[in-house]
Design a protein that fits this description.
Ribonuclease iii, N-terminal Endonuclease Domain, Chain A; three-stranded antiparallel sheet
Length: about 240
């Protein structure tokens, strides 16, 4: 016997229950879950996608995490705190949090986008998480958005620090390459896809004439860090 799929409204309410939030303006919540591809597919009555909310939510998320790190780690330098923050709010962690909160079931995507899985879906989920933060900020103010971030994102900081995910992989790989090969690694952008506000970069790292690894990210810096991490793993095997 087949299970009937739940409605979008029911999926959104399940998300709210999981996340511990309750939106006053349901249209804001729906917009946060609406991907550009869904609007472009000409769904009647749907005009707003979530990219502006994502832009706003990204800033709110960064402020909330920065505020926490500044108070929680008084002995660490500005460079350390920047690295902590970058490792905490990356697409992998945010996408995983979004999926666990049930955001995947709330997404409004085109038929083509809905078939994507893996890294592409993780990036969409991470962007959606930021859009939800932005929507919550508009719906209930900074305190509500800040509480949401500190409840669901900040608890991962211990794991980030313990695993050393915050360390600057580029610096570490440069030290290894110079010690082992007497050369400085070179980073080359292979591809930059997507609109200006939502670019996806693929970068390779090489030592001399040898390509070591490739990395992907929402910025060149993130892609370079990912390439350096993969290069470190390859060199340590």
């Amino acid at each position: 016997m087949k299970t009937q799929p739940i409605s979008h409204d029911e999926a959104c309410r399940n998300f709210e229950k999981q996340a511990g939030v309750s939106f006053k303006n349901r249209e804001l919540l729906q917009q946060a879950f609406t991907h550009r591809s869904y609007v472009n597919e000409s769904h009647a009555g749907v005009r707003e996608h979530n990219e502006r909310l994502e832009f706003l939510g990204d800033a709110v998320l960064e402020l909330s995490v920065t505020d926490y790190l500044f108070g929680a780690y008084p002995a660490h330098t500005e460079g350390d705190l920047t690295s902590f923050r970058a490792a905490l709010v990356n697409a992998v962690i945010l996408g995983d949090i979004a999926e666990k909160l049930g955001m995947n079931e709330c997404l409004l995507l085109s038929k083509g986008e809905s078939r994507d899985t893996g890294r592409a879906r993780a990036t969409i989920l991470a962007n959606t998480f930021e859009a939800v933060v932005g929507a919550l900020y508009l719906d209930q103010g900074y305190e509500a958005a800040d509480l949401f971030v500190k409840r669901h994102v900040v608890p991962h900081i211990g794991e980030v620090i313990e695993k050393g995910a915050w360390r600057d992989a580029k610096s570490e790989f440069q030290e290894l390459a110079q010690a082992k090969y007497g050369m400085t690694p070179k980073y080359t952008t292979l591809r930059a896809e997507g609109p200006d506000h939502d670019k996806h970069f693929v970068v390779s790292v090489s030592v001399g004439d040898v390509d070591i690894a490739e990395g992907e990210g929402k910025s060149k810096q993130e892609a370079e860090q990912m390439a350096a991490k993969k290069a470190l793993s390859a060199e340590k095997k």
